[in-house]
């Protein structure tokens, strides 16, 4: 097993005390999905809640002064950081899967129809949201610690809400926008590429912060 | 002579503190005490060895490997004990093994289990349920499980009772008994080192005061005692430090300078006394 | 063999080890070719540093009392008790020479010196 995956496993063992809370954050959004009768709502909330739990690995590390353990273990800083991102992505993926399984069931029981298109757009939207929430947060945690890093989570939320506000006001006759919106495959591809780039940049920043950090 | 730790001209600058040109060598099979008053740079030195702080100058070799270029390889031979444990409080002892062992190719589970038995640590207990002494032994148990060749301890006995401190020294003596392991023991409780340490490196306010054999260090000084009238100007000048009180005085004097004062009481100095007298202290001391 | 280290005697520990080993050789407690305790084990048992024991053993070897065989240990040399005895006789000579010098300064006649020696021998008979 590569060192990066060992670091991911280590992170899982750090959040064990919070398993119940994390489980709860994955199931609570079902209520929101039901209230709004929309899987997109449910998934959005799920991603938002799970993104808020990314701070646990940082707070547990800080509480126990475990940065010393990371200083002792034979592992590169880049591997530690990448391992943590994998952990965060794994949690996000898990929350997404749980949402996409449980919420349609509840919605169908309520009489709402949930088609493939709804599921896919919810999945893509959820992925993008999760990326937005986490790519700023994690470097923030690395640089400023578990408590101050929290702040970074609210910046993209504000930005996202602002975009939601301005998006309907954008000219719909822009040729590029029209092409993208009309082709779902292109849209999905674009989102995936964007997310990949966001994470790559975020990881790069986090590694640089950690390599320059004095423990 | 194989050297397990070589520190050359190590320097580090902080805003309020400078570690300046620290050099020392720890050969295979011996215990070195790293001593000095609180805040003198001992923990900084250890953190620099572990590359937890970036050095401003100098060179560090662990088992012949550069501590930055070959950081991972070097760290797989290194065991570290800090004054407080670095595990998650919530982990059970068994979880500690699960979490740490994967990083060390030489980890032997039987050895870990044997160490737990020897130290009377119940595997099902959580780290936070262990006493401070047990937590310290848990860090040791981990280091022994992958047969760390160099053990670095930073203030491992602070907060421990004399029985636990004695147990630790016993464990360390057994650890170096085969001649294939070394120990760097940083402490301000120098009594622990009086007998067991082979080498002493004394860092005082960021500067290297001495590095060499403990016997040589202790032999460099004597304690001269006498009545108040016997404290001559010559003695005051020659002494490294003097403590006066109503009924007399005690002075730390270099052994080679004691000839002139042979009429007074001359005793061997302990490591403690040397450190106390050589670190500028309060009003009683000059 | 018995080895007891005192922290308070003021005599360096390596010196104490040397003295006791020599005494054991002289009394026959340690015989020729017998092994001294393993250096590191002795250090551990007495809770003293390995370097200190090493110094004691090295000096004993330099003075001809033991031989250090690489990888096997330290063994008592056959001439041990002889050497020890020679050293002690040397000590007696030095002591007597000092006594004679002091007697000269004090203008003590030789017969007085002999008398003093007999009295002291009698007094120390049971030592």
Structural notes for this entry:
The complex is a heterotrimer of chains A (about 220), B (about 290) and C (about 130). Chain A is mostly helical and about 220 residues long. Chain A contains eleven helices and no strands. In chain A, α3 runs antiparallel to α4, α5 packs parallel to α8 and α7 crosses α8. In chain B, β9 and β10 form a beta hairpin. Helices cover about 30% and strands about 30% of the residues of chain B. In chain C, about 60% of the residues lie in helices and about 5% in strands. Chains in contact: A-B, B-C. At the A-B interface, α1 and α6 of A face α2 and α3 of B. Chain A: Keywords: Membrane, Transmembrane, Transmembrane helix.
Number of domains of chain B: 2
Binned strand content of chain B:
25-35%
From the N-terminal CA to the C-terminal CA of chain A, the straight-line distance is 27 Å
Class computed from helices, strands and strand pairing of chain A: mainly alpha
Sum up the overall morphology of chain A in one term: globular
- As residue ranges, the low-confidence spans of chain A are none
Radius of gyration of chain B: 21 Å
Helix and strand element order of chain B: EEEHEEHEHHHEHEHEEHEHEEEH
Number of helices of chain B: 10
Q: Which stretches of chain B of 5+ consecutive residues score pLDDT under 50?
A: none
Tell me what portion of residues of chain A adopts beta-strand conformation: under 5%
Largest interface (C-beta under 8 Å): A-B, 26 and 30 residues
Distance between the termini of chain B: 41 Å
Mean pLDDT of chain A: 87
Superfamily (CATH H level) name of the largest domain in chain B: P-loop containing nucleotide triphosphate hydrolases
Q: Major sheet of chain B, described briefly?
A: 6 strands, mixed
Secondary structure: number of strands of chain A: 0
Helix content of chain B: 25-40%
Q: Round the Cα radius of gyration of chain A to an integer and report it.
A: 19 Å
Pfam families (chain A): ABC2_membrane_5 (PF13346)
Protein name (chain A): ABC-2 transporter permease
Transmembrane segments (chain A): 12-33, 39-58, 85-107, 119-139, 151-167, 187-207
Keywords (chain A): Membrane, Transmembrane, Transmembrane helix
List the helices and strands and how they pair.
The complex is a heterotrimer of chains A (215), B (286) and C (127).
Chain A: H1 3-14, H2 19-27, H3 29-36, H4 39-52, H5 55-63, H6 67-72, H7 77-109, H8 116-149, H9 151-166, H10 175-182, H11 184-211
Chain B: E1 3-13, E2 18-27, E3 31-35, H1 42-49, E4 57-62, E5 65-66, H2 71-75, E6 78-81, H3 93-101, H4 109-118, H5 132-145, E7 150-154, H6 162-176, E8 182-186, H7 193-196, E9 199-204, E10 207-213, H8 214-219, E11 221-226, H9 233-238, E12 241-245, E13 248-254, E14 265-268, H10 271-278
Parallel strand pairs in B: 3-8, 3-9, 6-7, 7-8
Antiparallel strand pairs in B: 1-2, 1-4, 4-5, 9-10, 11-13, 11-14, 12-13
Chain C: H1 13-27, H2 39-46, H3 50-62, E1 66-69, E2 73-76, H4 80-105, H5 110-123
Antiparallel strand pairs in C: 1-2
């Amino acid at each position: 097993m590569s060192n990066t995956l060992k670091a991911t496993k280590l992170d899982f063992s750090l959040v064990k005390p919070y398993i119940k809370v994390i489980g709860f954050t994955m199931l609570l959004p079902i209520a929101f999905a039901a209230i709004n009768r929309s899987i997109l709502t449910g998934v959005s909330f799920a991603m938002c809640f799970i993104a808020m739990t990314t701070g646990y690995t940082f707070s547990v590390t800080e509480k126990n002064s475990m940065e010393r353990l990371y200083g002792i273990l034979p592992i590169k800083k880049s591997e530690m950081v990448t391992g943590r991102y994998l952990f965060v992505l794994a949690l996000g993926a898990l929350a997404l899967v749980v949402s996409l399984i449980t919420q349609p069931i509840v919605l169908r029981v309520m009489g709402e129809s949930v088609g493939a298109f709804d599921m896919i757009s919810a999945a893509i939207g959820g992925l993008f949201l999760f990326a937005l929430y986490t790519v700023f947060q994690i470097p923030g945690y690395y640089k400023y610690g578990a408590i101050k890093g929290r702040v970074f989570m609210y910046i993209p939320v504000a930005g996202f809400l602002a975009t939601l506000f301005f998006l309907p006001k954008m000219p719909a006759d822009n040729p590029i926008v029209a092409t993208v919106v009309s082709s779902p495959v292109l849209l999905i591809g674009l989102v995936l590429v964007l997310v990949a780039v966001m994470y790559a940049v975020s990881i790069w920043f986090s590694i640089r912060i950690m390599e320059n950090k004095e423990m | 002579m194989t050297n397990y730790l070589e520190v050359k001209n190590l320097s580090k600058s902080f805003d309020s503190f400078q570690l300046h040109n620290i050099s020392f060598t720890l050969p295979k099979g011996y215990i070195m005490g790293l001593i000095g008053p609180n805040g003198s740079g001992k923990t900084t030195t250890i953190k620099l060895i572990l590359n937890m702080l970036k050095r401003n100058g100098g060179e560090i070799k662990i088992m012949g490997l550069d501590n930055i270029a070959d950081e991972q390889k070097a760290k797989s031979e290194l065991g570290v004990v800090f004054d407080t444990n670095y595990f998650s409080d919530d982990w059970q002892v068994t979880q500690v093994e699960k979490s740490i062992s994967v990083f060390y190719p030489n980890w032997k589970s039987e050895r870990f289990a044997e160490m737990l038995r020897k130290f009377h640590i119940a595997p099902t207990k959580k780290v936070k349920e262990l006493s401070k002494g047990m937590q310290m032994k848990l860090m040791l148990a981990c280091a022994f499980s992958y047969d760390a060749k160099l053990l670095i301890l930073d203030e491992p006995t602070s907060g421990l009772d004399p029985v636990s401190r004695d147990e630790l020294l016993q464990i360390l003596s057994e650890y170096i008994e085969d001649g294939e392991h070394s120990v760097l023991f940083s402490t301000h409780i120098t009594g622990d080192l009086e007998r067991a340490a082979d080498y002493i490196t004394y860092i005082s306010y960021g500067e290297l005061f001495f590095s060499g054999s403990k016997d040589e260090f202790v032999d460099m000084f004597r304690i001269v005692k006498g009545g108040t009238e016997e404290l001559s100007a010559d003695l005051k000048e020659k002494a490294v430090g003097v403590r006066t009180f109503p009924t007399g005085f005690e002075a730390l004097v270099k052994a080679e300078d004691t000839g002139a004062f042979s009429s007074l009481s001359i005793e061997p100095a302990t490591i403690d006394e040397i450190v106390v007298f050589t670190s500028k202290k309060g009003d009683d001391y000059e | 063999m018995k080895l007891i280290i005192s922290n308070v005697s003021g005599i360096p520990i390596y010196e104490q080890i040397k003295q006791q080993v020599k005494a054991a050789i002289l009394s026959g407690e340690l015989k020729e070719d017998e092994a001294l305790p393993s250096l590191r084990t002795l250090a551990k048992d007495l809770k003293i540093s390995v370097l200190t024991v090493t110094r004691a053993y090295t000096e004993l070897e330099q003075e001809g009392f033991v031989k250090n065989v690489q990888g096997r240990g330290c063994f008592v040399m056959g001439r041990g008790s002889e050497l020890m005895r020679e050293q002690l006789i040397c000590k007696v000579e030095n002591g007597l020479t000092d006594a004679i010098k002091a007697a000269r300064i004090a203008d003590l006649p030789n017969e007085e010196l002999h008398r003093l020696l007999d009295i002291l021998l009698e007094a120390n008979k049971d030592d």
